[in-house]
Design a protein that fits this description.
Helices cover 36% and strands 36% of the residues. Strands 5, 6, 7, 8 and 9 form a 5-stranded antiparallel β-sheet that branches. Strands 2-3-1-4 form a 4-stranded antiparallel β-sheet, with helices on one face. The protein is of the alpha+beta class.
Length: 194
């Protein structure tokens, strides 16, 4: 299972290096790490997606404790089970025929991605979506000749609306905190709208 950790650090040339050193020293299985500026002028946000091992150790909890000890770390939070908006970016260059280009245009409408460059024999696609949608699109695009592919790490923000039924289903202590009928009521509400 993947865990998503959000870290707020002061801008410092060695901040990311310290976190990478910690990850490698403690042998965490890292899926992605993304660092960028954030809403605060002198800070940066780091989003870490790591894979929990099957050895029973809670890697998210362990990593959160370790990062809190580092210099220049302002805040660290395991946001895995919180309602999130998560996105990744995929850039992919395909070698295509005229017929395949028409198929790609149809896929662009279905998956809502952008065709950012077109030549006689190639197209470059820009996809911004959650991990599941990107994985599904990658599977579909396997039949085309992929020349280059680049995928960013995940980024995430906590939803203020607190609505995310997928996160609630995965939360280990959900039923003991909210009662068994709460999730069913939320799902019924959403099904009525569609």
């Amino acid at each position: 299972m993947e865990r998503t950790i959000s870290v707020l650090v002061e801008k410092d040339t060695g901040g990311l290096v310290r976190i990478i050193s910690l990850l490698t020293r403690r042998r965490f299985h890292l899926k992605s790490i993304t660092m960028s500026t954030c809403e605060r002028k002198c800070y940066e946000r780091i989003t870490i997606v790591l894979i929990n091992q099957s050895d029973g150790v809670d890697a998210g909890k362990q990593l959160t404790k370790q990062i809190k000890k580092l210099v220049n770390v302002v805040n660290v939070k395991d946001i895995t089970y919180l309602p999130l908006v998560q996105r990744e970016l995929l850039l992919i260059k395909l070698q295509v025929t005229l017929r395949e280009r028409a198929e790609i245009s149809t896929l662009a409408q279905i998956f809502r991605f952008k065709i950012t460059d077109v030549t006689q024999s190639t197209v470059i696609l820009e996809v911004t979506a959650d991990q599941g949608k990107i994985a599904a699109l990658e599977k579909i695009l396997e039949k085309y000749n992929i020349l280059q592919l680049s995928r960013t790490g995940g980024i995430a923000l906590i939803r203020e609306s607190n609505v995310s039924t997928l996160s609630l289903k995965e939360y280990p202590e959900f039923e003991s905190h909210t009662g068994q009928n709460y999730l069913k009521n939320i799902e019924d509400l959403f099904q009525k709208d569609y």
